[in-house]
Amino acid sequence: MKARSLIRCLFMFFILLLVACTTPLRESSPGGAAIKPAGSLVLVTGITGTQGNGVATALLEKGYRIRGLTRDPASDKSRAWSARGAEMVKGDFNDYESINAAVKGVDYLFLNILAMPDYIAAAKHVIDAAAAAGVKHIVFTSARLNDPESGFDENAENSKRMIELYLRNSGYPYTTLRIPKMMENFTRPADKQRLLTEGIVDYGTDNSKSYYISTYDMGVITAAAFANSKAWQGREVNLAADALTERQLAELLRKITGLDIAFKNPSWAEYRGDPNFLASGKYYDQHEVGYDLVKLRKEFPGMMTLEQFLRQNGYEKLGETRTSPAGLAAPTRRD
Asked: pTM of whole model > 0.90?
């Protein structure tokens, strides 16, 4: 009897040991995903731009290997990424052979494509080539008004809406991230220059909110999609980490910089002089355009607010000088 009990115990021990040895270690991450073992290769398009840079930075920190698509591997930005360990490959969206080569051996694809001649066909080719190469999951970045269900009337034949619909019907594993305003836009010299010299915020009206996210947080969410492809399959997310009216933005900038930053409600006649910008601006002003801010903050509580981002990127010091980088007079400082 004792012998049989001992044999039974040894058998159970063996089974438990076998399960422990064959089950991969899983680590909790935001979004309830399981972090993949380090070493998976991600092709990041647009890596030398604002969006791709932030996403690739987050993916690199999560343990992914990075392959960056660039038109010029010898550029300063490309070489900077090479120094960080990325494999930089030469390619162009309209050069299909270069795309076919770039996706070989890749585990995941982050697709960020700007409007350009034939960019809809180019995006479809990238997606097809990635699927043919065995890419496990594609994350594509779009915009809120490109959502086919948004109700926004646009030239659908020449917009990312066509790419969104193509992905929906492709059968490929994908996630669409519709991005709002990128917080990194506030770090552009031209934006800082305008704020210092004019001291006004006039991008929208009192009726509309602007939504924001940092590109690094976009990368964190992208990593979650790659890490748990099944849960993120077909998910279309309206990204947002913070939301402010333009008047609230002016108040926030005034608080952080100490400068007299004012809100100006522009007339539609002078609304940036861009027909597309005007159309989208009017739509945001007249409609409640839903973003997944509350849901995303529950999944990813560490997402930066705009105030955190501005403070981390030197906006408090911006108010310490009374002249702009070009030597023009800055708004009056409130001491």
From this structure: no
